[in-house]
Design goal:
This protein is α+β, with helices and mostly antiparallel strands. The protein is built from 37 helices and 26 strands. Helix 27 links the parallel strand 25 and strand 26. The protein starts with a helix and ends with a helix. Its main location: membrane.
């Protein structure tokens, strides 16, 4: 319901337009209504936009041309107020109180609260009863209150963690939605953020775009969209101009083919896509595989915790009645109730300590921390599971252009009409050596057969926007003084075949007029094509010679051009051929709109484009090798260019195999499987090659990461265990299919993703090692001490155990699951997919430390009075209990240092000066422990310790470190139940020289195998001869 105050401004805005957002929404549902609005141009008139000019930047702008001169400039804010913003409103963030309630909504905490309330009531009743000694303080209520306060602290701390985690994920989600789009404003094509698109904008769309706005088709060429996500229609839907077919483009559609200029009619939550997203906004949060594993483990441990607590309750209950019977002492009602409540609280506290609710939290914290830090390393994580999966990657299949190279294309060599230019510095002189007709045709083709356009960056500097290859070609034309924008404005494109990775070319058909280069008599249209040199050469039957004449492309000239292509490729240059063909009207009408006319072309020339290797790529490739990750380069470039780049960056090694996509596809599945282990470079590849390679690698049980940027890369990115889409060069379809977006398109960022993936896995395993040690030690110590105590009291009180629980859950998760990256992460092989969550080294440390801690505390508990000269008085008993509590806590503090490493290296302090969060948390725990012991006596049942007692307990606690060293020096041989699945990756650390040696050995062995095969074949031939 719109209030009267709100309605008045809306009516004011709507007077500027003769259509409402409700009518536009109805138009999407019923496209036939377009006629009633006056068709496409009538709709433009209603929205105050000229389709040839676009929205006007401001009221002072007056275009010099247009077909709807009566349109007026309306501020963008007015459009947003009337038709909405292009944003999906975020679901309201959970309030802090709701997060507190969610954290408290735990069965064990609720049980503990009830028990503490009963304890509080009983304590107050005992304090007020006549049987309470007059000379003793009335502190029976303290236990209940202390437990309630401890529960509150645990709940609030968990709620704060959840709140911070949600804030971090919201920032990431906002970043995911941000992307640039091309629009027409003030007669100029420009790039804006998608959130800035408003109703009435004229937008350009091309293959790979994922639309989040509803549009009406204005004009374009062969536009086909995948509307399956919106309508369920599995076949691509072709779009037409009004009156010729379907002209409505629904948000959520993917552009598969063609280009078009469209009118935006609905944005944000008013669009078809927006309405669907509003319905799905409450979908459940993603659960990662590691979280699922840990949830299963937590459930298993919880069962043991409940079993131990149940057993403890039964044994202590039996003990209470047995002692009462043996001593002929009948327990009073109040005494029975008090003792029973105490036993129940101890049992519930054991459950609280035993149940590892911190495990899932550790994964969440690790992922939240890692994804935030990965964004700083230009990795935008779309699916949380990809972060941890990347840590176990065994193979990376990478594109070349823009990933391994800088994607800063520059034309450095050219050959047009048999006139060559070998260096970029000679281009200005070369232009006067080329025949004018050939040069004009070449530059005409560069200008019109391109989707790149001129724009401005954030600083207002002129820059070219679009494919980097096309930008390089346009820059080449500009350097030669060619007015490419004038040529574009004067030319009329009759048909456009956008670049396709399957045909490796782009074609534009012009309708000839007086502005075009002279053409033969009878020609009405001109076909301009650019594409991969060796592929386009096969489509050419003629070439333009040095005199500007079109002559047949004979065998000798074809071989000469092929040699030129190979010479460019040997210099690591990308080679591009330019060709054209003039045709009659009758020939044009016979063209297939779905397949470009790739025959009888006239070769104009070949261009060599340089793209330098990115800094740091060579080092990253070496780091991947040390990490046990096999790198493959999959590129659309020709074989020689691909091999030159691969050798330069270290991907192609002796014994490695380089081949082309067609050759790979020609192999049988079995032959492909045999080739895959040695395949390092695949040139002239198609998107289908990527899916085949992924499938063959996954058959070998490998974890595959794949990069992609094109629309057709979508299936491969989905199939890969981790799909990386290019943030700069990638299409929206590729990004939507990916798990991680490389914001800088940089290969080095993939290495960072690998490190963070391993850091997440390591952080969780470190935390798991620490927490299970505390779980075992605390439960056993509580059980044994309560069993032998005369009063059936655990040596560690309920409040003390809750403090220990906070140390091992929240604080440990923050300290161990958020450690910074180190280079050691990429000096070992990846974990196997079926690896145990707890490996042999972890088990050895968990049980070794737990046994050590139990032994130390039991010795103190039984022999402490003799060691410290303490009597059996109440005060000395409190001192002993406080010392045991202090020792137990400091055993955890020092064991947390042990858990910083989960390998067998002894330097547990390495890199600790850079781990500021770990040091801060350790300092917080130590300071809190000092305050608890010295000043928390009433709540925590402690007494202040002397300096010597502090030094002694800290010294005993520090023995965790030498104990950890001793455990690490134990034999490495695995027990029987681990022997069939040795997942201990630390046994397989790799040095680069060793890797080179192994590669060389494999190369020699392969050579011997080939030699032996040749000898066998020769022997068979000789046998047949005789």
């Amino acid at each position: 319901m719109i209030s009267e105050d709100t309605k008045q401004p809306l009516l004011a805005y709507q007077k500027q337009f003769s259509i409402t957002k409700e009518q536009l929404a109805q138009l999407i549902e019923q496209p036939s209504l377009l006629i009633s609005f006056g068709g496409t141009f009538g709709l433009c008139q209603s929205l105050q936009v000229d389709p040839t000019v676009g929205l006007l930047p401001d009221e002072t702008f007056h275009p010099t041309y247009g077909i709807l001169p009566q349109t007026q400039s309306i501020p963008f804010e007015d459009r947003k107020s009337c038709f909405g913003k292009n944003e999906i409103p975020e679901a309201a963030m959970k309030s802090f109180l709701s997060l507190v309630w969610a954290a408290y909504n735990d069965q064990t905490l609720i049980m503990l609260t009830i028990a503490s309330l009963v304890s509080l009531a009983v304590g107050i009743w005992e304090d007020q009863s006549d049987s309470h000694p007059a000379d003793e303080p009335k502190v029976g209520w303290v236990d209940g209150v202390a437990i309630l306060v401890a529960v509150a602290v645990v709940v609030v701390t968990n709620a704060i963690n959840d709140y911070e985690k949600e804030k971090q994920f919201r920032k990431l989600n906002a970043k995911k939605e941000d992307r640039p789009v091309k629009v027409l404003r003030g007669g100029l094509a420009q790039q804006i953020h998608i959130q800035e698109v408003v109703v009435g904008d004229v937008m350009f769309i091309e293959p790979g775009d994922l639309l989040n706005v509803d549009c009406v088709y204005i004009e374009g060429h062969n536009l086909r969209c995948d509307e399956s996500a919106a309508t369920g229609e599995s076949n691509p839907v072709k779009k037409h101009e009004e009156g010729k077919g379907d002209c409505m483009i629904i948000s959520g559609s993917k552009v598969l083919q063609g280009v078009a200029k469209v009118l935006v009619v609905a944005v944000g939550e008013n669009s078809f896509y927006g309405r669907a997203m509003m319905l799905m906004r409450h979908a459940e949060e993603e659960t990662t595989p590691l979280q699922l594993k840990l949830n299963v483990l937590a459930d298993q441990i919880a069962k043991f915790g409940f079993l131990a607590a149940g057993l403890m309750f039964i044994v202590l209950l039996i003990k209470m009645f047995t002692l009462s019977y043996l001593h002929h002492h009948w327990i009073s009602t109040s005494e029975l109730l008090s003792t029973l409540i105490g036993i129940i609280i101890q049992a519930i506290t054991v459950i609280v300590v035993a149940v590892p609710e911190g495990l899932p939290m550790a994964v969440t914290l690790a992922l939240a921390f890692a994804t935030t830090e990965m964004l700083k390393d230009n990795n935008l994580v779309r699916h949380l599971s990809a972060c941890e999966t990347m840590g176990n990657a065994t193979a990376v299949c990478s594109d070349k252009t823009g990933t391994l190279t800088e994607n800063k294309m520059t034309v450095v060599s050219a050959s047009v009409a048999e006139t060559r230019c070998a260096k970029s510095s000679e281009i200005q002189r070369w232009r006067y050596q080329v025949h004018p007709t050939a040069l004009d045709l070449t530059l005409e083709g560069i200008s019109v057969n391109s989707t790149a356009f001129e724009g401005r960056d954030a600083e207002g500097q002129v820059k070219f926007i679009g494919s980097t290859t096309e930008c390089a070609m346009i820059e080449f034309a500009r350097k030669l003084g060619y007015a490419y924008q004038d040529q574009r404005a004067a030319s009329r494109s009759a048909l456009i075949y956008p670049f396709s990775s399957s045909v490796k070319s782009m074609t534009t058909v012009l309708e000839l007029n007086e502005t075009n280069v002279v053409s033969p008599e009878g020609a009405a249209y001109r076909v301009h094509t650019k594409g991969a040199a060796e592929i386009l050469l096969r489509a050419c039957s003629h070439y333009m010679d040095v005199r500007g004449n079109v002559v047949p492309l004979d065998r000798a000239m074809r071989e000469e051009q092929e040699q030129l292509v190979n010479s460019y490729a040997a210099r690591s240059l990308r080679t591009l051929a330019l060709a054209y063909r003039d045709v009659s009207k009758a020939s044009f009408e016979g063209f297939n709109p779905d397949e470009p006319p790739m025959h009888d072309l006239v070769l104009l020339g070949i261009i060599g484009i340089q793209d330098q290797l990115r800094p740091g790529v060579i080092e990253s490739v070496q780091a991947f090798r040390r990490a046990g990750v096999f790198i493959r380069m999959i590129t659309g470039d020709n074989l020689e260019t691909a091999k030159a780049i691969a050798k330069e960056c270290g991907i192609l090694t002796p014994g490695g195999l380089a081949m082309t996509g067609p050759d790979f596809r020609a192999l049988s599945p079995r032959e492909q499987a045999d080739v895959i282990p040695r395949l390092q470079v695949l040139a002239r590849s198609s998107p289908i090659d990527k899916t085949v390679i992924i499938a063959r690698l996954q058959e070998r049980n490998e974890v595959v990461a794949m990069t992609g940027d094109g629309t057709n890369d979508g299936p491969a990115l989905k199939l890969a265990n981790v799909g990386f889409a290019m943030g700069i060069a990638g299409t929206e379809v590729a990004k939507e299919a990916s798990d991680i977006i490389l914001m800088d398109d940089n290969f080095n960022s993939i290495l960072q993703a690998l490190k963070w993936g391993r850091a997440v896995n390591d952080g969780v395993r470190k935390f798991l090692t620490f927490q299970l040690t505390v779980n075992i030690a605390a439960v056993v110590l509580s059980f044994v001490s309560a069993l032998v105590s005369e009063k059936s009291e655990s040596i560690l009180s309920a409040v003390q155990l809750l403090w220990v629980n906070m140390i091992m859950d929240t604080f440990a998760a923050l300290a161990l699951a958020t450690e910074p990256l180190t280079d050691e992460l990429v000096r070992r092989k990846p974990l196997r997919k079926d690896a145990h969550l707890i490996n042999w080294r972890m088990s050895r440390m968990i049980f070794g430390q737990a046994l050590f801690q139990i032994a130390v505390n039991l010795v103190l508990m039984f022999h402490g009075p003799a060691l410290f000269g303490l009597s059996a008085s109440t005060q000395d008993t409190k001192v002993l209990r406080t010392m045991v509590f202090n020792v137990f806590v400091f055993l955890q503090v020092f064991n947390e240092l042990n858990c910083r490493r989960i390998d067998d290296r002894l330097n547990i302090l390495r890199g600790i000066t850079h781990d500021h969060l770990f040091l801060a948390i350790q300092a917080l725990v130590v300071i809190s422990q000092i305050i608890i012991v010295q000043y928390g006596g009433l709540a925590f049942k402690t007494v202040p310790l002397s300096l010597s007692q502090w030094l002694f307990t800290i010294g005993i606690g520090s023995l965790s470190i030498p104990a950890g060293i001793f455990i690490r020096l134990l034999p490495h041989q695995l027990p029987y139940f681990w022997s069939e699945n040795n997942d201990d990756e630390f046994n397989h650390e790799i040095s680069y020289p060793r890797l080179c040696w192994e590669t060389a050995v494999q190369h020699v062995l392969h050579g011997l195998h080939v030699k032996k095969a040749e000898e066998v074949t020769l022997a068979q031939k000789e046998a047949r001869h005789f």
